[in-house]
Amino acid sequence: MGEHRLSRRAALGLLGGGALAQRTKLPPPRPPVTSDRFLEDLSRRAFLYFWERASPDTGLVLDRALNSDAHDARNVSSSAATGFGLTALCIAASRGWMERDALRRRALAALRFYAQDSEQVHGWFYHFVDASTGKRVWNCELSTIDTALLVAGVLTARQYFDDDEVRALADSIYRRLDWQWFLNGDPHFLSMGWKPESGFLSARWNTHCELGILYLLGIGAPVNPLTPDCWYAWSRPQITYAGHTYISGAPPLFTHQYSQAWIDFREKREQADGRTDWFQNSVEATLAHREFCIDLGLREFPGCYDESLWGITASDSAHGYVAWGGPPRDGPIDGTVVPCAAGGSLMFARNLCLQTLTAMKQRFGSRVWNRYGFVDAFHPTNGWTNPDVIGIDLGVTLLAAENARSGAVWKWFMSNPNVANAMRLAQIA
Q1: Does position 258 have pLDDT exceeding 90, yes or no?
Q2: Residues facing residue 273 across a β-bridge
Q3: Residues 6 or more apart whose Cβ sits within 8 Å of residue 99
Q4: How far, in Å, CA of 347 to CA of 335, rounded?
Q5: Per-residue DSSP letters for 79-142?
Q6: Is there a contact between 400 and 408 (Cβ–Cβ < 8 Å)?
Q7: pTM for the full predicted model
Q8: pLDDT at 10 over 70
């Protein structure tokens, strides 16, 4: 996978290296204001991951890698990371970070692979595969949510690059999905996955979490779609914390971010069931999470969380990967800070999220900030720093930053006719 990386000099140019940027004919960052300069740097670094840590042959993006230019022998891709990566290519092209045709060719490599060569069952893709061959690894499941995140990227590329081959490949990937098969007899709730050894997983997408993108794509599907009442069937538990009341079915903050990295719910409400405003719901979730972290800093973890240093969501930890978060408190929270918690909410609370992201960089410098931006997680006081970045965490940060700056990802994705039809059928306007 190393042969396709930009040279160190070219990569520095991509990241805004002054004269180096001229030498490699890459445009320098645009710095109209301090916050935009920071977001430009953050976004370029995140994009660099999706360019360097993807196979040029298959377009598949690594699940994780070291946050440096050091050799990394790991070669496992995730379908969700590739969905974020396809969207990253669109962002890079729109901002002129690289030559558009090179980015289009990389997108085509991924689209051709998924349309023609990838392992799939009833159109659905495995969660983790070898990035070079696309072969299933770790006996993982066909994943409904990871396929949905991939297809969100596929449809974003369809609209942005807008040529005949891109459209045809994207349409073939979307049309092949058998939504009725993954219901497995249930009238409303998709199974979370399927394995050839054991069949469908018993867990279903039946309560609020990151499922919005999955059900919207299913309702708008061109073949064997889900019925619109699937949108209203899943449960919507409501919580209140520090004066913020909102719907939340799982504590990690990413559950409020992933779907809305693509779906634009701004100034829209559900018309059929309580007029829920999903965008404002995620704003409230972000504000409540910040207060939750501040309270943890006051009560248990001084020096780890405060008004300008906060954020816990599913991430690496000193003891492995953990799906932690809150409120309510969930998982073995130990003071670890996860930058993509604030990064993925840039589209909901730009100023507060910028405040903590810039504070992290200023306070901890190269300990937490390297080639691809922030490390996945770190502990402010005990010295533990994760050497890795994770594709989906960089991805949600990049997409949220772009939506906060321009709304471009929302515009591209929502311009898909099937998505517009799904919004109409679900009565969200």
Answers
A1: yes
A2: none
A3: none
A4: 25
A5: HHHHHHHHHHHHHHHHHTSS-HHHHHHHHHHHHHIIIIIS--BTTB-BSEEETTT--B-TTPPE
A6: no
A7: 0.93
A8: no
Tell me the CA distances in angstroms from 329 to 166, 319, 415, one per residue in order: 44, 18, 38
Would you say 67 and 53 are in contact if contact means Cβ atoms under 8 Å apart? no
Look at the alpha carbons of 410, 412, 413, 418 in this order and tell me if their dihedral is positive or negative: positive
Q: Which residues contact 392 (CB under 8 A, 6 or more apart)?
A: 78, 80, 81, 84, 149, 258
What is the token pair recorded at 160?
A: 């942005």
pLDDT value for 275: 84
Contact (CB, 8 A) for 270 and 428: yes
CATH number at residue 221: 1.50.10.140
The pLDDT score that the predictor gives to residue 16 is 44
The answer to whether residue 116 scores a pLDDT higher than 90 is: yes
pLDDT attached to residue 14: 54
Asked if 127 and 140 touch (Cβ cutoff 8 Å), the reply is: yes
List C-alpha distances in Å: 112 to 5, 128, 301.
21, 18, 49
| DSSP 3-state of 143 | strand
Residue of 369, 407, 398 whose CA lies nearest to 40: 398
Q: What is the residue range of 380's domain?
A: 2-425
Q: CA geometry: angle at 307 spanning 305 and 311, to 5°? A: 50
Q: Which helix (H) or strand (E) holds 397?
A: helix 391-405
Residue 213 above 90 pLDDT? Answer: yes
> Hey, which residues does 306 pair with through a beta bridge?
309
- Residues 141 and 195: their CA atoms lie apart, in Å, by 5
pLDDT band at 13 (very low <50, low <70, confident <90, very high): very low
Q: Which two tokens stand for residue 247?
A: 């719907």
Mean pLDDT value of segment 34-56: 95
Average pLDDT over residues 353-372: 97
Q: What DSSP string runs through 153-193?
A: HHHHHHHHH--HHHHHHHHHHHHT--HHHHHTT-SS--BSE
Measured between alpha carbons, how far is 8 from 54 in angstroms, rounded to an integer? 17
Collapsing DSSP to helix, strand or coil, 241 comes out as strand
Predicted pLDDT at 15: 53
Q: Confirm if 82 and 51 have CB atoms less than 8 A apart.
A: no
Domain count, the chain: 1
Least confident of 29-43, 157-171, 347-361, 393-407: 29-43
**DSSP state for residue 16 in the 8-state scheme:** T
